[in-house]
Amino acid sequence: MSGGSSESSPLSGQNSLSSLSISKDNELSSESGCLSIVVLGASGDLAKKKTFPALFHLFQQGFLQSGEVHIFGYARSNLSDDGLRERIRGYLKGASDEHLSQFLQLVKYVSGSYDRVEGFELLNKAISEYETSKNNDSGSYRRLFYLALPPSVYPSVCKMIRSYCMSPSSHTGWTRVIVEKPFGKDLNTAEELSAELGQLFQEEQLYRIDHYLGKELVQNLLVLRFANRLFLPLWNRDNIANVQIVFKEDFGTEGRGGYFDQYGIIRDIIQNHLLQVFCLVAMEKPVSLKPEHIRDEKVKVLQSVEPIKHEEVVIGQYDGYKDDPTVPDDSNTPTFASVVLRVHNERWEGVPFILKAGKALNSRKAEIRVQFKDAPGDIFRCKKQGRNEFVIRLQPSEAMYMKLTVKKPGLEMATEQSELDLSYGMRYNGVKIPEAYERLILDTIRGDQQHFVRRDELRAAWEIFTPLLHDIDGGKLRSVPYKPGTRGPQEADELSRRMGYVQTHGYVWVPPTLSKV
Ligand SMILES: NC(=O)C1=CN([C@@H]2O[C@H](COP(=O)(O)OP(=O)(O)OC[C@H]3O[C@@H](n4cnc5c(N)ncnc54)[C@H](OP(=O)(O)O)[C@@H]3O)[C@@H](O)[C@H]2O)C=CC1
Ligand SMILES: O=C1O[C@H](COP(=O)(O)O)[C@@H](O)[C@H](O)[C@H]1O
């Protein structure tokens, strides 16, 4: 790995990948020069809770180096450099005061509106001053814009960036733009947004972020599926009865009711995060690990999804959701949904994929549960012990475990359900698992689009959900009420049963301990 800057990073600089990028043929190539990272919407929630902490962690690990990088916050609020630094300081954890102040010194603030020339001219001036101050004639000028903003201002902000803030053509380098979801509200609005941004930037410059693609166990899915002989012959309709991809939160919309009510849980979680996970579980093996090969396969599997049937959907809304003054009294917006996807291809015909997400439920977790069919000719008569299940828990406490039937230890020939267990906390004790945003911002700097959503992928995703969303918006499906702190509507468990999911009864997990060797 090449070192890049001569100025030292807090952690010795041995991670200095700020100067490495993944070229089109997936080889690492080196880049040096100035890197300007601009966080637009710097005064907002996402910026302070996710974007700046992610940048800080990259800095701490030496991926961003003082000598090469400068960070600009841009927003309408009237703040000074120190004002922004104070605002984000409390969210930057786990470092010495010295590292923290080194990082904060890299952060500058520019105030301006999102649709006026003056602000963007000021921003460009600030970036250029930094670039020329580095006396960087041979190196490249790299400009990364992170849009931590409501999507309504994406088009005007992107026009301004395109007109006033691009990396100067007098130097080598690049301009890249990270855009946050929601990418539209349905197929038409998403296509309009794509067309507007597409007129301003090449697809290679646009990074549509879905932070679930940055989670450790989501990134593990391709390795798991395609590097393990064990799974290759099993991963299909002959062996798998059903797949559940589940997101649960144990809190409600909490002050975000106004935003949430415009979108609902399908647009907020299922159409993007869970569908991305679904792609990685269901897609065919890509030709190689090149981003385009992977994304080609994702598009193919999305295009093989059949139209969603109303009778294979349950939507719900928790009691008390409408107490939020920003939510209309007659809102039908779902805070819970369970939606069955069916893939019309040779591998998956007949296997239901149940995508379930809900707020204000009984627990917080995100997991993939692959349930296998019963073993034929069961001489142990052990069906009561449950089916094999392979569970990948994305959060909290990353783990993957295979529930399987074993002989109960003892003199009798009795069976019970147990597990092969890979709990990351135990197996990778002390290893820090990177935050999703951290990883994805680093990918952007490296020019690796593998974990970002391509335009045709987005289109295919909206094609699946738009008819259902329009029917919900038009009142053709009604949200069933459910009590906060429960599993959601009973109708959803009923739907899972109808889809062939067989719940295991009597399985008790005993967390492993090495103390009784
Ligand atoms: N390494 C580790 O950390 C391991 C942990 N464990 C723990 O052991 C416990 C049991 O594991 P496991 O059996 O996999 O998970 P659970 O018992 O939590 O859930 C199993 C499945 O049953 C569903 N379910 C739960 N209650 C009902 C109900 N009343 N009606 C219909 N469906 C229901 C769940 O749905 P839903 O998803 O909606 O809740 C889920 O799909 C869990 O807490 C698990 O985290 C087990 C093995 C390894
Ligand atoms: O995108 C979103 O994700 C969060 C959940 O993210 P996680 O990484 O904590 O699982 C969710 O709370 C929010 O509603 C949604 O917009």
Automatic annotation (TrEMBL):
Gene Ontology CC annotations of this record: cytosol
Coiled-coil positions: none
Record keywords: Carbohydrate metabolism, Cytoplasm, Glucose metabolism, NADP, Oxidoreductase
Protein name: Glucose-6-phosphate 1-dehydrogenase
Gene from which the chain derives: LOC100383421
Entry-linked InterPro entries: G6P_DH (IPR001282), G6P_DH_AS (IPR019796), G6P_DH_C (IPR022675), G6P_DH_NAD-bd (IPR022674), NAD(P)-bd_dom_sf (IPR036291)
Ranges where the Glucose-6-phosphate dehydrogenase C-terminal domain occurs: 222-500
Pfam families: G6PD_C, G6PD_N
Species in which this protein is naturally found: Zea mays (Maize)
Catalytic activity as recorded in UniProt: D-glucose 6-phosphate + NADP(+) = 6-phospho-D-glucono-1,5-lactone + NADPH + H(+)
Record flagged with keyword Cytoplasm: yes
EC number: 1.1.1.49
Family designation: Belongs to the glucose-6-phosphate dehydrogenase family.
Gene Ontology terms, MF aspect: glucose-6-phosphate dehydrogenase activity; NADP binding
Compartments (UniProt record): Cytoplasm
Enzyme class name: oxidoreductase
HAMAP family referenced in this protein's UniProt entry, alphabetically: G6PD (MF_00966)
GO BP: glucose metabolic process; pentose-phosphate shunt, oxidative branch
Domain of life: Eukaryota
Pathway: Carbohydrate degradation; pentose phosphate pathway; D-ribulose 5-phosphate from D-glucose 6-phosphate (oxidative stage): step 1/3
Domain Glucose-6-phosphate dehydrogenase NAD-binding: from-to ranges: 38-220
SUPFAM superfamilies linked to this entry: Glyceraldehyde-3-phosphate dehydrogenase-like, C-terminal domain (SSF55347), NAD(P)-binding Rossmann-fold domains (SSF51735)
Principal subcellular localisation of the protein: cytoplasm
Alphabetized PROSITE patterns for the sequence: G6P_DEHYDROGENASE (PS00069)
Functional description taken from the UniProt entry: Catalyzes the rate-limiting step of the oxidative pentose-phosphate pathway, which represents a route for the dissimilation of carbohydrates besides glycolysis.
Cytoplasm recorded as keyword: yes
